[in-house]
Amino acid sequence: MILDWLPPTLIGFLLVLAGIGAIRRMNLWRAGQAEKVNILAGLLAMPKRYLHDLHHVVERDKYMSRTHVATGGGFVLAMVLVLFVHLFGVKSEILAWALLAALVLMFCGALFVYKRRMNPPSRLSKGPWMRLPKSLLTFSITFFVLTLPAAGILPEGTGGWVLTLVLSVLILMSLSEMLFGMTWGGPMKHAFAGALHLAFHRRPERFGGGRSTGLKPAVLGEASHGVAKPTDFKWNQLLGFDACVQCGRCEAVCPAFAAGQPLNPKKLIQDMVVGFAGGTDAKYAGSPYPGVDVGNAKGAPDQIITNGLISSDTLWSCTTCRACVEECPMMIEHVDAIVDMRRFLTLEKGETPNKGAQVLENIIATDNPNGYSPASRTHWAADQNLNLMKDVKQADVLFWVSDGAFDMRSQRILRAFVKLMKAANIDVAILGDEELDSGDVARRLGDDAAFQSLAKRNLATLSKYSFKTIVTTDPHAFHCLKNEYGDFGSDALKGVEVLHHTTFLNRLVKEGRLQLDTFKGGKVTYHDPCYLGRYNGEYDAPRELLASLGIDVAEMERSGYRSRCCGGGGGAPITDIPGERRIADMRMEDVVSTGAEMVAVGCQQCTAMLEGVVEPRPVVKDIAEILVSQLSEEVNS
Amino acid sequence: MSQYDALFEPLNINKLTIRNRIVSTAHAEVYATDGGMTTDRYVKYYEEKAKGGCGLCICGGSSVVSIDSPQSWWSSVNLSTDRIIPHFQNLADAVHKHGGKIMIQISHMGRRSRWDGENWPNLMSPSGIREPVHRATCKTIEVEEMWRVIGDFAQAARRAKEGGLDGVELSAVHQHMIDQFWSPRVNKRTDEWGGTFEGRMKFGMEVLKAVRAEVGPDFVVGMRITGDEFHPDGLGHEEMKKIAQYYDATGMVDYFGVVGSGCDTHNTLANVIPNMSYPPEPFLYLAAGIKEVVNVPVIHAQNIKDPNQAKRILEAGYVDFVGMTRAHIADPHFIAKIKMDQVDQIRQCVGANYCIDRQYQGLDVLCIQNAATSREYMGLPHVIEKTTGVIRNVLVVGGGPGGLEAARVAAERGHKVTLLEKASELGGQLVYAAKAPQRDQIAGITRWLVMEVERLGVDVRLNTSADEAMVKELNPDVCILATGGRPFIEQNEEWGAAEGLVVSSWDILSGAVEPGKNVLVYDTICEFSGMSAADYLASKGSLVELVTDDIKPGVGVGGTTFPTYYRSLYEREVIMTSDMLLDKVYREGNSLVAVLENEYTAQKEERVVDQVVIENGTRPNEELYYALKSSSRNKGQIDNEALFDIKPQPVLEGGSDEGMILWRLGDCVSQRNVHAAMYDALRLCKDL
């Protein structure tokens, strides 16, 4: 027939264009810094990572996961078959039927995509994403019709050249979206970049159920530190940004966004894309940073990010709670990116805002963020009769006290925990004044030099003593010790179990070493601290402990991995970027909505933030404090 | 950390680490039983302080080391026998388990005691000079007796150490044996134990050496000394600095406690435990002066009641430890409340000196406003737990201290509490009491109670005079009447109250009646109100004669408080007349004539004045009680057996359908005092 050559030519043409786009795109990523990855292993692992790990996240939204399986799965299958049937002209009714089936599957999925786009939630980006369901439907219908003759359903030549021409126009339209758009920055880019992002992810440990939450150490002593320009990111970080589907799940869970602070994780990732690809954010069609108009941001690969692309306030609004990372179906690492950029602001520019600079100076001068006399670190324990490691040299348990030692409120948590350990006859010692701040705040504020200095000195101290377990009531110190101190080549923690006190106490209760009475107070809810939950996956021990007191936890809607941050992480209370609300107030509203009279926590920072909410409000208590008031027998200190 | 960091910096005394800078200094508790043993009540009293966070408790003010220093008058601790050792172990364990430290003051009181009881000893003193406050005559101590007493000190210290206490404090203050030797006012000896400076120091030095030799170098041995006796012939501040330096130079003293003032006269005694008429920390400068010359920590108490005051003193470095003894009697959880960021919930000592004034009468030390103090052993709580039983509607009528305490305790229990007060402000009689010169701080009792009932959400209705209909309408499950009393000025018709010839002390203090120019105050009660009325009138310029039929004006006011009244009354030229009854009052022209009759001779005298003020106590406001009594479930009765046993009232076991429970407490039953009303309120309501 007269135009039979046209569809395959169009397909081929768009494939070539897609190929050119892919190379262009890859070059944009390659402008980033080198990072070693195992290309082959990554590519081989990719399908499993997609089908298992990524799907696991997507699966939290059943509607979307089924829709995506049908649409995405149908498309990938259809596209491969299209190549055989329509480009290479393989004559096989089986393939044609298979193609028809794939297209039907895709069509069904696309209908649901269409339906969702009829009245989309605010978190979803609009703009080109609004035409995607139409493109998907067009693709499936077009190729369905085009394939009918090949399947022997319609005679060859049905519709004549007119139909072929019409179909060709539709092919051009749909494939422009699906192939050309995939590598030239259309919505389908997510499939291309997403797949490669899974293959070359910077934290491969996250796949297969693992957890990787420790920040990567900054290399110190270089000409410049941290990420100033988009090209300062590792190449696979840039790739990761490109994988964003703009679903806005991050936006929906971001506490800073909800508080009206100028941060929206989705926009941040999109701005990163604008940065390394060059251009403006004018085409961004999602929610803005609260209080900041869209369209004024300009970026280029070699342009300082905070000079025109994003405001530093955006970076300082983050509490590093990891809700966005936990929620991201593309497994993008927002927090890494934010801290990378903070490192530049702090280490190179000295622009840590508000109390930031003072806190960092305090840390450098006194080894604790609030500048207390280092000699007063153990004042809280004057009446606790605790062994000092420097005296006893070894103990079963090293209690890492953390900077709660300086804070009168936190000291109540410390004393409660000590009493529980005494009740269980634990052989415990503390470092006393030898302990230094864990470095958590310094690190989250971007001062990795201060963090590394503290880490190395703490490790040197720890290496002098012998202990099997290190326990702390501070999830931030817990995270540093467990997940971040390992990067500094010390054996001090080799073979040592690092535990949060709730995990430790839960064991004691299970072993029958703590005798506790039933709790008779009112309704209790539990707030998951970010650095215990999302950072370390400990959701069960605190709940089991409460259950052991007979408490039936009245769960908040946002609990477990979806827990809402208290607002106290990442140095956010120090940088104190203004918003419309306080994060802690919102969290307390969550608490209040359960009807609880008490909120149990497992973190002194959460305690401080939640107790900072004006009364009347539920009582805030650490789990150790709740347990100690239920101890069956009096314990001598 | 907090603004109170200075309080929470641990400090060592010798090798003993004290967790904070707050000390409960030695005071006589009058709780030791069984011949001076630290039994249950004693232990629980100190345990509560340790539980509340107090750093160091120095217990047992004037605990005796010898059998000829009597202990039974003030039920003080007896260290003259090994029998004390296991009791000390109980005491030490109780304090240590809460992280506190505990030492004991040890002393031979010399002439500062009474001989007319117990073993009927001859009291001993360096020169046999009588002690006026205790009317104590004594013999001149002989050298053999000195060495025996020195040995007794060492044995007492051993017993403290063996009992697990953390140290001993040698009392060289309050005119005990050691400072009787020091003071040239009392020590007139010419032998090696007197005369020269070294001679006067010798007895104390031998005691110190003997004690140190017995307990070794690491056990804490402190000394409590005066900073200035305030007697021209006594020890002055410069001499005390010299003495402190002299003992400090031995290296055998681990700390000095410094007290301002001697106390062997009534007037100096009042300085030692400054009541509410004194400014804050009046004698800190004396302690700071001692700290200048010694190398060991210095402790100072005396009118330090507020955490901010303590912090200011410590931050300025005047002393190393702040004694807050009465502050802990009023609220043993003083430190815990600072740590819990509940400074506003601290029940602050107001300097009423009910505690120490009872002690000087040989009665157990009690707090005017905290009935739980020293009654921990009976089960009276400092922290009221919420009830796990039914929530009741509780109506309290009357917002004096008794009613406020009832409302507070009931609200702490979790009940719904309504408080009705007739007047426009809360406080009852305390409102009037606080109007007198130098007595304003008594209002602190009300202030705390009001803050607490507000915090606890009590529905307080002022300007509300309750009657039977109102109570019925509110329909409470429990109705507590604390309606107080009214001045009883009509007892003798001849006084002419009905004709308006006399007014009450309340009329004067409340400002309802203007002070006259020439006023006779007739006071049959001889406690605070009459003295206060006289002092108030005099301060407003009235010429006042304070007349009583009792043996002296203010005879019912305790030993640390009548002197401060007297200072003021004498200065304002108030005439004080005893032994005269007020026979009658009649009008003559524009004046009033008060006819007085001498109780012992029946001789009559007349006073021409323009105002007669009568303080004759109160009669209970019991009308509402009798209106409600018959319809109440319990006919208004309180089960005394349960009440005295600190047990729940049996009537609480019944169901609420059986009608309203009616109780009354305080002066609406019979005239007693603030403590009595608050004690009843606490013990009734703690199980509500």
Can you give a write-up of this model?
The complex is a heterodimer of chains A (637) and B (688). Chain A starts with 5 loop residues before the first helix and ends in a 9-residue tail after the last helix. Chain A is elongated and about 95 Å long. With 637 residues, chain A is mostly helical. Chain A has helices at 6-30, 39-58, 62-87, 93-118, 132-147, 160-184, 189-199, 235-242, 249-253, 255-258, 265-277, 312-316, 323-327, 334-348, 356-366, 389-392, 408-423, 440-444, 448-462, 475-484, 501-510, 540-548, 572-575, 583-593, 604-611, 623-628; strands at 279-280, 298-299, 387-388, 394-400, 428-430, 466-472, 497-500, 524-526, 598-601, 619-622. Chain A has 4 domains: 6-199; 211-224 and 246-348, no CATH class; 365-510, 3-Layer(aba) Sandwich (Rossmann fold); 524-628. In chain A, the strands form 3 sheets. Chain A has a 5-stranded parallel beta sheet. The longest helix of chain A is centred in the first third of the chain and has 26 residues, at 62-87. Chain A is built from 26 helices and 10 strands. By secondary structure, chain B is an alpha/beta fold. Chain B has 3 domains: 5-110 and 141-173 and 190-340, Aldolase class I (TIM Barrel); 393-486 and 620-685, NAD(P)-binding Rossmann-like Domain (Rossmann fold, 3-Layer(aba) Sandwich), CATH 3.40.50; 489-616, FAD/NAD(P)-binding domain (3-Layer(bba) Sandwich). Chain B has 22 helices and 27 strands. In chain B, a hairpin with a 2-residue loop joins strand 22 (580-588) and strand 23. Chain B starts with 10 loop residues before the first strand and ends with a helix. Classes of the chains: A mainly alpha (637), B alpha/beta (688).
